[in-house]
């Protein structure tokens, strides 16, 4: 049986059925990200329940520091309300299915090792460009978590020239993320939806002079 894979981003929650040999069987429509814990729990339930009878387990990737020993999310990255939320326990108690929870950057590098560009590679790195910035690292064929499960989490890095007068807007996850790029380009393109990434990248590929000089 496939597993239900769910990616909790700062902008959208996405899900798909993944086969035992890591193939994508079905992709479901994304949902707008939740902004509080109650809404998040209800949204997660609505994403899982329709598929519960045809999956063997649930795998979730999310921002924040994920303590895989005690199964708790800390800080929550762009989803601050997930701080100290016991995701794995919640899923297994609610749905009676085995569940796995991992930081999104770390999940991404494991996916590449299992089936794609890093298959057979001993040392590698994957960078996730979304609402924030994340990195997954493989050393000697093993996922590198770091002493506090925080290895590769770049969203809260600060530019060197900002450290004396920093604000929340200076964080790398806000200034250098793909979402920030899309919002910036959408303004130059006068798009109604400032998060319309498809239109933005179509303009970039077409070398639209309103945005292409940035690249």
Main attributes of the structure:
11 strands, 215 residues, 6 helices, 23% strand, alpha+beta, globular, 3-stranded antiparallel β-sheet, 6-stranded mixed β-sheet
Description:
With 215 residues, the chain is α+β, with helices and mostly antiparallel strands. It is 27% helix and 23% strand. It is built from 6 helices and 11 strands. It has helices at 37-48, 87-95, 104-115, 172-175, 178-189, 197-205, and strands at residues 3-8, 12-18, 24-27, 31-32, 58-62, 65-67, 72-74, 99-103, 124-129, 133-139, 142-143. The strands form 3 sheets. Strands 1, 2, 3, 4, 5 and 8 form a 6-stranded mixed beta sheet that branches. A 3-stranded antiparallel beta sheet has the order 9-10-11. The chain has a two-stranded antiparallel ribbon with strand order 6-7. A hairpin with a 5-residue loop joins strand 2 (12-18) and strand 3. Helix 5 crosses helix 6 (197-205). The N and C termini lie far apart (44 Å). The mean pLDDT is 88.
Number of helices: 6
For the secondary structure, the number of strands is 11
Query: What is the mean predicted local confidence, pLDDT?
Result: 88
Q: What is the string of helix and strand elements?
A: EEEEHEEEHEHEEEHHH
Shape: globular
- Beta-strand percentage range: 15-25%
Please report the distance between the alpha carbons of the first and last residues. Answer: 44 Å
Question: What is the percent of helical residues?
Answer: 25-40%
């Amino acid at each position: 049986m496939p597993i239900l894979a769910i990616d909790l981003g700062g902008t959208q929650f996405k899900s798909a059925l993944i086969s035992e040999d890591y193939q994508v069987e079905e992709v479901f429509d994304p949902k707008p990200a939740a902004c509080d814990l109650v809404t998040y729990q209800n949204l997660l339930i609505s994403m899982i329940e329709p598929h519960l009878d045809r999956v063997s387990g649930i795998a979730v990737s999310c921002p924040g520091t994920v303590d895989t020993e005690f199964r708790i999310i800390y800080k929550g990255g762009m989803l601050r309300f997930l701080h100290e939320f016991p995701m794995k326990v919640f899923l297994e108690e609610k749905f009676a299915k085995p569940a796995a929870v991992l930081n999104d950057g770390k999940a991404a590098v494991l996916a590449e090792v299992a089936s794609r560009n890093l298959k057979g590679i001993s040392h590698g790195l994957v960078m996730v460009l979304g609402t924030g910035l994340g990195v997954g690292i493989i050393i000697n064929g093993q996922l590198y978590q770091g002493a506090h499960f925080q290895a590769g989490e770049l969203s809260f890095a600060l530019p060197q020239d900002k450290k004396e007068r920093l604000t929340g807007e200076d964080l790398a996850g806000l200034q250098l993320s793909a979402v920030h790029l899309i919002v910036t380009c959408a303004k130059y393109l006068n798009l109604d939806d400032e998060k319309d990434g498809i239109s933005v990248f179509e303009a970039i590929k077409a070398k639209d002079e309103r945005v292409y000089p940035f690249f």
